[in-house]
Structures are given as structure tokens and as C-alpha cells.
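Appendix B. One record, verbatim.
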Amino acid sequence: MYRSQTLVRLTRWVLAMAMVWLTSCATRQATVTPYVAGEQPANGVVYYLPKTQLRIHFVLSEAQFEPGALVAYASRYLGESYATQPTTRYQIERVAMHAHGVPDTTQSYLIQSVATPSVEQLAALTPEGLLYSLHGKAYQPATTDYLADYPKGVTQQEASQALPQEYALATSRAKQAEVAANRLFELRERRVELLSGQVETMPCDGPALKMVLDGLDKEIAALQALFAGRTTKRYYEEVVDIPIDEPISQQVVARFAPQYGLVDKKDLSGAPIYINVEAVKRPATQSDAELHKLTRSKALRYIEPGRARVSLQLPERSQAITLELSVAQWGRAALLEHKLGTDKLGQLPYTIYFDLTSGSIELIELPQQ
């Protein structure tokens, strides 16, 4: 009888300890609930599911032509005719398209945790509030420099470096033109002599000859610019964001004019740039039971996105630029079945990274054994 009572007490103690252990394990897990700003305290981390936009990068060049100071005398001394008015011309050098995620303010969620590690350690967000990782690394922005392959600026030699003293002493523009033309012909003749080997002292080797010829070419170009003028070119970038809530057919996103560059889509001075967006895939509509579970669940939400095909048609180009991308708002919300937080041994059971443009799961990493 005594042993029976002892066994009962021991069994009750074991059950009580098991309940405590289970409760402690449960408190390790974080919970996720819909969040409405101003209606509930944000005693945790608030994250947003993304909304997908199309971001278009245009790399353009601006070429500015300035007539030469001696252009009026080009016909007399050089037998050439050059433009006499300054002009500016633009050209599209490159176009790049990619998906870009922005917070969907209609889909915000609150992650709460009362255990260690804290919710700030469990979830890593972008500065805009998009969910980047669970149990993973902090967000580090990655950027692409679309101007990296283009010159930052061109340093041009001044013509005065190739001109004799007589140019500075000339009392008229016509005399300056005569001196400059004579010096130009002299340098051209010297270049021909070097190339044909008709000089008393030739450079010692090929690299030395190339160095001398490069120096002559710069002097000749500087003198030529006094008559023909010079063109300076700079490269710059324009970014256009396009919402893609619905399919798009032949929509004008911007316009381009060689005289003005990229202009607003309402500016009729430029030729239109058209975009088409068609749906390639959309997940099936969720049932009432799935929607009910989604509403009541305290699991983390992510997105099973749809797919779209984009084509961009530039003026005077026969071939369109095409791209396929995932679209968050064409998909549906899904529940992460994995629990948030540590396991019963205090270890992080997995690491998940999310696509910031579509809200889908990008990578799942299991702990190394």
C-alpha cells in the first residue's frame, strides 16, 4: 500500500515536470499575428510582405559639341567645312530590368517572442521592413553600378600645348588660324615620317615609337579641335519604376528624344517606349478552409508568387528586351510550417532566407552536423 502511494506520487511528479518542460519549450517559440499600426502595441518586430515592382535602369550618353574657335577659317587654311553651331545629342547606351520589392502596407505582421534568443535575433529585416532571414545573417544591401563600364570623364589636351609662340603674338584671328594650320600640317608630316622611318633618329623600340606617336596624335587632335570643334561626352543613369498590379499591354513608360534624352511619358517631344506585362503563372485560389487557417494561424507568412513575362520596346529598335520575374501580388500567402525559435536543446534548427522582391523562400539551410 505504501509502495503504491509512493508510485502514484512519483507518477504525478513526473507528469508535472513534463508539463513544465513542455510549457518551457512552447515559450521558446515565437508567434506571428497580423499587425495594424495604432491598434496594437508593437512589442516585437513588425515585418511586411513585399509588393513587386519592375525597375528599369537607363544608361544614357550626353554628347555636347562646341564649334572650334577658328572654324570660320577652316575652309581657307584646311580646305574643310565644319559645323558652326553648338549642339547636344543624347543616346540610350544600355537598358537593364529587374524586379524590385517594396513593402505592401496591407500585409504587415508582428513577430513576438518571450524567450532567448530575442525576436530581434531571430528575424533580420531590411531598413524598409521586409523580412530578409530567420535565424540567419543580417541584411547587407547589394547594389549594381550600371555606369561602371563607361568613362567617368575625358581629359582633353589644350591646343596651346602644341602651338608655337607666334600664335600668342598674332594680332588677328586670321593670323592665329594661319599659324595653327601650319603647325597642324607640320605635326602631320612628322607623323608620316615616323611611320615610314624617314627620320634621322628613330625611337629605340616599338613601345618607344608608340609613345611618340601617341603624343603626336594628342597634339594633332588638340589643333584640329581649334577648327573642327570638340565633343565632350558624359554618361548618366535614369531609373523608372513600373507597378505591375495587373497585366499591361502597350503602355508608354517613358519617351526618348535625341535632343532632350529621356523625358516623361506625357511629353510628346520624344518617341514612346512601350512595355508589355503578361501573366505566365498564377497560383490557384485558396479555399475557404485554407483562408480560415491562414487567418487564425500564428505561424509566419510568406508568399507563393506568380510569374510574369515583361517586354520593353525601345524606339528604332526592332527587338524588344524581355524578362521573366516572380510577382508577389500575383501569388498567395502561405504559412511557414517550421516553428520559430530554438529547439528543446536551445539550438537553432534551420536558417531561411527570403526573396525580397517576391516574398518567396529563397534558401533553407540546415545546421551542420
